[in-house]
Amino acid sequence: MAVAAAETPTAPLPAAALSALARLHSAFPVVQAVTVYETAAVHAVQLAALAESGLMSDLDADDLAHAEELMAGARATLHAAGRLDLIGGAS
To answer: What is the reported pLDDT for 3?
Structure first.
């Protein structure tokens, strides 16, 4: 049997939930930066292999430059957070 919306309290949140939400919110930029860095790094490796083969197009070169820019931005975010260890770098 479904519970009516009026029977399910949604506010105010308990103090423990507010604390957990604040921790998650503050960690989001770090999690996002790690994801961006790792994804861009894989793409950059693939494109670098293409460059070594001599088959890289101008569009591929632009993609490689963009992947490197994404990695640099993510690295800067992680450096500012003191969490370069998450991508294998020193803090």
So the answer is: 52
